[in-house]
Design goal:
Length: 455
């Protein structure tokens, strides 16, 4: 009898832990289910308001910017407009200047582009971190809010809408200005009769949509955006497509007499970013549609981003949340491997401005990891690991031959090259474990007054 009681008592802690784990899992499932329901509600509302009719003559582009964007926008915005023109369509580009950031010289140059109209918009005070600010067509934010409207196709004009987000307590962070764009400008414009373009392109300030051939041969003059848009146009069953993320270290260069930062594809990448580059979109755990380049049906994209900005104002990596919710909402689409979107990463020797200084590339990975930890707590690892996973990449063992081909790329497999590559892999794996351990202790706070949404 005593022995039976002792055994029963010893089982209680383990039973309690199992029950606690099960309760947490059920809570995470309910949270995800509720978020998916909200996304689907938004989409149904948009389709009802538009009578499921969208503008097929234009493409909507959305980019959030902060300090440093002036180094990229002078060439990325004209390039994207040119790529849209080559598709035979017009562009409506919305540029969100976050938390008082301004780059007037860059914006003024856009007025010199042929067949481009620049429209300045302004937000009033953001009342809370998850409440979208109203947007007006005048600096004083007086009168009626501004709503987007359709123009006649024969006007054949590209439009750039520059949103000057007022600096404020709740404004700082990419997701905060995206909340004003998606949750205020776009949704309210639809409410007031605007027929949005059928396709929406989400990108970053430094994004270039290019075609990459086998073994990292990048066609610098190619139109990757055209390929991915054509895929959506030709296959109506596809809802959302991600480009393949392509990291690059940037260096100073000149474009039309302006000093900018341009990707240097020949410079060696930091170990973890190099590893992510070669496996991106090819294996489970690395299937996130990147913020640097995601293209989808406009009703789908607005539904996803409006929900994320409203519900999780502490999100730092909106792309991962977008991909997770899209998957569980049964929106179809994957990574379009033929097209890359460029994404800046620090050089191996770059250091942060912290005291003491830290390796910048490691801090970039750390920020991604804190986002991942926050997402694991919110939705549960079981619901996200196919898209984003921070555990050991077992495909390096189970699909070793395929993986080693990616590691070698187009390089000749001599002894020195193999040793160099294996050394880089070892550094990537060991550093990743260290960063993961540190990030587990500091997951992103997604909601409430303590939520911070820095870049």
């Amino acid at each position: 009898m005593f022995l039976n009681n002792l055994l029963a008592t010893s089982d209680r802690p383990s039973n309690f832990l199992r029950e606690e784990k099960l309760a947490l899992r059920e809570k995470q499932d309910r949270t995800l289910e509720a978020d998916v329901s909200s996304v689907l509600y938004y989409r149904a509302w948009i389709q009802a308001k538009t009578n499921n009719t969208f503008d097929s003559t234009r493409i909507l582009g959305i980019v959030a910017t902060a300090k440093g964007a002036e180094n990229y926008l002078p060439y990325t915005i004209p390039q994207i407009i040119q790529q849209i023109s080559e598709i035979g369509m017009m562009a409506d580009i919305v540029i969100g200047l976050n938390n008082g950031f301004e780059c007037p010289t860059v914006i003024d140059r856009f007025t010199l582009l042929p067949d481009v109209q620049v429209i300045h918009l302004y937000t009033d005070e953001k009342l809370a971190n998850n409440i979208p600010a109203r947007i007006f067509g005048n600096l004083m934010c007086k009168g009626e809010p501004y709503y987007l409207s359709n123009i006649e196709p024969q006007q054949s004009r590209h439009r750039i809408f520059v949103i000057h987000q007022k600096e404020g307590q709740y404004a700082a962070g990419k997701i905060r200005v995206l909340g004003d764009i998606y949750g205020s400008l776009l949704l309210n414009s639809i409410e007031n009769g605007w027929m949005p373009p059928a396709i929406l392109v989400a990108f970053d300030a430094e994004s270039q949509f290019l075609v990459e051939q086998k073994y990292s041969v990048i066609e610098s003059e190619s139109n990757g955006l055209k390929l991915i848009v054509n895929q959506l146009q030709n296959q109506p069953q596809i809802d959302i497509l991600g480009t393949r993320n392509r990291f690059a270290v940037y260096q100073k260069g000149m474009v039309d007499g302006i000093e900018v930062l341009l990707p240097n594809f020949s410079e060696e990448l930091p170990p973890i970013q190099w590893f992510m580059d070669i496996v991106y979109g090819k294996y489970n755990g690395f299937r996130c549609k990147p913020a640097a380049g995601t293209v989808g049906r406009t009703d789908v994209m607005i539904s996803l981003l409006a929900l994320i900005a409203e519900s999780y104002p502490g999100v730092k990596s909106d792309d991962t949340y977008t991909t997770i919710l899209a998957k569980h909402a049964d929106f179809t689409g994957d990574i379009f491997l033929e097209v890359i979107a460029t994404n800046r990463t620090p050089g191996i020797t770059d250091m942060t401005m912290d005291k003491p200084p830290k390796k910048a590339w490691m801090e970039q990975v750390y920020r991604w990891n804190t986002t991942h930890q926050g997402m694991k707590l919110l939705y549960g690892e079981h619901n996200i690991k196919v898209i984003a996973h921070d555990g050991f990449p077992w495909f390096t063992v189970t699909r070793a031959i395929d993986f080693l081909k990616l590691v070698m790329g187009g390089e000749k497999a001599n002894v020195s090259t193999v040793i160099r590559k294996l050394k880089t892999l070892a550094i990537a794996f060991s550093t990743s474990r260290q960063i993961r351990k540190r990030s587990i202790e500091n997951p992103d706070i997604l909601q409430g007054s303590k939520a911070k949404a820095f870049w």
